[in-house]
Amino acid sequence: MSTARAAGGDFVLLLRFDPAVLHEAAAGWRRLSAAAEEAHQQHRRRVEGPLRGQWRGADADRAFRAMAGTERELDVVRVEAASAALVLETVAERMDQARTNLSNALRRADEWRLPVAEDGTVGLPPLAPADRHDPDARVQRQRDLLLRAQLQQRVDAALAAAREASDRGARALGRLGADVLTQPRLFGTLRECAADARRVAADLGLATPYVPDNRDPARSAAWWHSLTPGEQQDLLALHPELVGRLDGLPATVRDRANRLVLAQRLDALEAGNAKGSGLTYEQWGTRQSGLRALAERLDGGGGSGGPDGEQPLLLLGLDPDGDGRAVVATGDPDTADHTAVLVPGTGTTLNQVPGQLDRIALLRDSAQQAAGPGQRVAVVSWLGYDAPEVDGSVLTTRRAEAGAEDLRRFTGGLRVAGGGHRSHLTVIGHSYGTTAVGAAAAGGAGLQADDIVAVASPGMAAEHAADLHLDPAHVWAGTARDDDVSLATGTTLGPDPTLPAFGARTVGIDTSGHSGYWDPGSESLANQGRIIPRPRPRPRPRPRPRPRPRPRPRPSPCPCPCPCPCPCPCPCPCPCPCPCPCPLIGANPPVPRTPPDPDEPLPVMARSDAESWARELTAYLARSAGATLAPGSSRPFFSPCTGRNGETAGDGRYTLAHHADGTLPAARHPAAVRALRAALERDGFTVTAYRETVDGRPDALLYARHPAGRYFLDVGTGGGTDRLALTVRTRCLLPPAEPS
């Protein structure tokens, strides 16, 4: 009987259930969570932050420890209240769904004329005496029995779902006790409440919420803006590690998430020990000290010089594992008129981030002085890659290439997060950071930067400034006279970007050593600051002596080895002996000063060899332009050689025009022909015609000839907006004589 009464009570309670009560309670807990976060932010901005910049001594240390405890308690309230709101919302939705299912079952009972008792038992309609002997009535009775069984199953399922939702909710709420506040501990409370949040989700049977994979900033931004404010708040409190890593989200949102991640990770380190963690005690201590130093800088991270007199620090990314990674901005890049991203170099770890924050503060102050009235400046320290140690890893581009996509995604995310507001974006690399910047700028669609600056560069993993998806006039480079990085520049990481052949503009440097480029009051710092708001740094007045760079092999317009017998179809020395000179392309041939002898023998080459050579050359042109050859577009056109009066010889002499289409957005055609022009001129070609635009629209054209080989190249914007037409034209060639 007790079970029946319980079932009857459940039936009545579920019918009378009003989800608005639980939703209202959840909203109250969510308001408490938001209030705790706001109180934490106000405490940091108005109390702890200002005091950290002015108060020193034993009393200050004790006070800051107490303040840290208060902020931890506010974070606990934020997470636990959000967990309570999640429980109540989940239970309300599940109970409401169960009530809806029960109501639908009761409506169906009315349609089928089946009575339902107050304990949820489904009955049968009364049977009249006359129906006992009616065959049709007996058939209907059998049908009613089947319908009653179906209906009873639906009623029981609705009641069972409601009981499960209630039981799961009660178990989850039981985890959210107030003991973390009533029995405070010095460390471990944040770790415990984060664990509570995970256990609550497990009690409710909730999977990890969907979060984009951080491959596309635009997709991440669209997902975030599609959420309700309540959903956003729950994710920030309960899954901050998933939100804080997403490029494309507003900087203030990432900061809110990553600060909580920082507090939780630091609390877990301070409450635990290295045993069983996979870390040595030294590594444990190093990670702990690095996170603590970062937290202290963020807590006291005000500044001056902004239009409103305040310059907050925003934590845009954090990964304490390994050497650690952190991305920190001074100022909000989403609203700044001018934004700079500083990429550090060799040996930079999480523990060096506070020093990087000093640099971006100096950079921002310098840029703010150069900016116009009311202009806002933000500078970001981007340690978002695994910078090489002082070992063999610094001699290769592997670390730079590994972080290239992350840097491209970050700068692309800045563009997305800014929405319709476009900030002037400058990306600055220091030391190996210039290699990382170069690798990122040369790959994919580039960094979407307006200017790129390389200071103390050992090489940018690119052959020319035009390779960086940017007008070389907006690529800047400078190195101090006594910087030892000059010993490595131009060896394994690329040519020296300060040399004229690279194509960048030089920046005046008056500081010494490898780390003095941000010395207060220096011309080195001032010139970087002038680039950030407007690209007008003072050029270096005179070239300085530099160590002679080691010779580097130049890329060839076609692959080796070249086929034998002659003629050699590629400009590198033939690996096999050739009994005759290379008539089309010589190995670094001298440019003739006089017209060629009209009576010289024609070069001998089979049509198949000429076609193969031309195909390789058009592929080289496409690669140099950053285009992709369209499949099936490669087409040879052979024509007979004709004399001045149209006469032809009977020996089969011919010319070849080989055409192919490269696929490249029209907006990138000007940069493509700039890159091609630089590469061809390095390889001894003469450019005879050149243009990038017509009436301001991209409409590229490049004609070039090889003086020794006497063949011609045509490159230009095709009829389609994304088509770059590539053509190779030979001089008159003679096919090999047929054996007699």
Describe the structure.
42% of the residues are buried. The protein has helices at 2-16, 19-52, 58-112, 135-174, 179-182, 189-204, 217-226, 229-238, 240-243, 251-271, 281-299, 353-370, 398-417, 432-442, 523-531, 607-625, 669-682, and strands spanning 313-319, 325-330, 338-343, 377-383, 424-430, 451-455, 475-478, 505-506, 628-629, 635-640, 654-663, 686-694, 697-705, 712-717, 723-729. Helix 2 (19-52) runs antiparallel to helix 3 and helix 10 crosses helix 11. It contains 17 helices and 15 strands. The model is unreliable at 1-6, 302-309 and 541-596 (pLDDT under 50). The protein is flat, with a radius of gyration of 36 Å. The chain has 740 residues and is of the alpha/beta class. Strands 1-2-4-3-5-6-7-8 form an 8-stranded mixed sheet. Strands 9, 10, 11, 12, 13, 14 and 15 form a 7-stranded antiparallel sheet that branches. The longest helix has 55 residues, at 58-112.
